[in-house]
Amino acid sequence: QQLAERWGTNADCIAVDAGADALLLLFLRLFCQVGDAVVLTAGSYPTFPYFARGCGVSLFEYPYHPETLQHDLTALAAAAEQHQAKLVYVANPDNPTGSVYSFAEIAAFRARLPAETFLLLDEAYIDFYQDSEQGTILPITARVRTFSKAYALAGMRVAYVLAEPEVIAKADQIRIQFAVSHPAQLAALAALADPAWSRGLVAHSIALRDQLAQALQQLDYRVLPSATNFVCVVLPQVEQAQAIQRRLWQDGIAIHRP
C-alpha cells in the first residue's frame, strides 16, 4: 500500500520479494519453460543469464550497440520476433554500462515486441534517473525495483515489481509468501516514510559519481555516461583491464570487470 501511494497506482499492481534477483527468477519461472527462447544483451547483468540457464531456456544474446554501448533495442526486437521469444530482459539503467533509455523509448520498444513476448525490465538503478513516468504500468511488462541502492538496504533483501494486476496475481501464485522478513519490511517502511533521506543519499551518490568520472576523464580514460551510482570505464585491451583490477585488488579496492 505504501509503495502504491508512492507511485500513484494500486496495491494489486505491486508484489514484494526478497531482493531484485528473487523477482527476476520469479518471472523466468512464471513465463518460461525448458527450451523457450529468451532474448537479452550479452554482458548485461550476469546474474540473469545465470538464472536463465538454470531454468533451461534457450538464450539468445546480442551485443551492445558498437558506438554507444547501449542496448541495441532494434536488434533485440528483431530477435524476439525471429525466435518467438517468451521473454526479453533489459536492464534500464543498465548494469554494467550505466546507460539508460527514457520511458518513451522503452514504451516504443515494448510496442515493437511481439504481443506474446513478456518484457522484464530490471530497474534496480531507476532512482538515480528521474523520469516522470516511473510509476506507469506497461502492458505485458514487469518493472523490477529494489531498496538496495537508493535506500542502502541491500543486506535486508527487499524489492518490488510494478506490473498489471493479472501479472501480479499470477506471480503471487508461485511466489514464496513469507520470503521478506518482518525486520526487512519494517526497514522498507521506515525508508519510504523518510523520502528526504533517500533523496539526500541519491544526490550525494550522484555527486561522488560525477567527481569520479571527471577525475578518470582527466587521466584520459573513456568513461561512459551513467544514470546509476557507478561509472563504467572502457579500456582498449582486456590485459590492461585485468592488470588494473589486480593492482587495485592488492590495494584492497574491489572493482567489477564485466
The string of secondary-structure elements, in order, is HEHEHEHEHEEEHHHEEH
Per DSSP, the total helix count is 9
Count of extended strands: 9
Quote the average pLDDT.
97
**Low-confidence segments, ≥5 residues, pLDDT <50?**
none
Order of adjacent strands in the largest pleated sheet: 1-7-6-5-4-2-3
Written description of the protein model:
- With 258 residues, this protein is of the alpha/beta class.
- Helix content is 41%, strand content 15%.
- It contains 9 helices and 9 strands.
- It has helices at residues 2-7, 20-31, 47-54, 73-83, 103-112, 165-174, 182-193, 195-218, 238-250, and strands at residues 14-17, 37-41, 58-62, 87-91, 118-122, 141-146, 159-162, 222-223, 233-234.
- The strands form 2 sheets. A 7-stranded mixed β-sheet has the order 1-7-6-5-4-2-3, with helices on both faces. A two-stranded antiparallel sheet has the order 8-9.
- The mean pLDDT is 97.
Quick summary:
By secondary structure, the protein is an alpha/beta fold. 41% of the residues lie in helices and 15% in strands.
Note the main attributes of this structure.
41% helix, 9 helices, 7-stranded mixed sheet, alpha/beta
Protein topology:
Elements (H helix, E strand, L loop, with lengths): L1 H6 L6 E4 L2 H12 L5 E5 L5 H8 L3 E5 L10 H11 L3 E5 L11 H10 L5 E5 L18 E6 L12 E4 L2 H10 L7 H12 L1 H24 L3 E2 L9 E2 L3 H13 L8
Parallel strand pairs: 2-3, 2-4, 4-5, 5-6
Antiparallel strand pairs: 1-7, 6-7, 8-9
Helix pairs in contact: 2-3
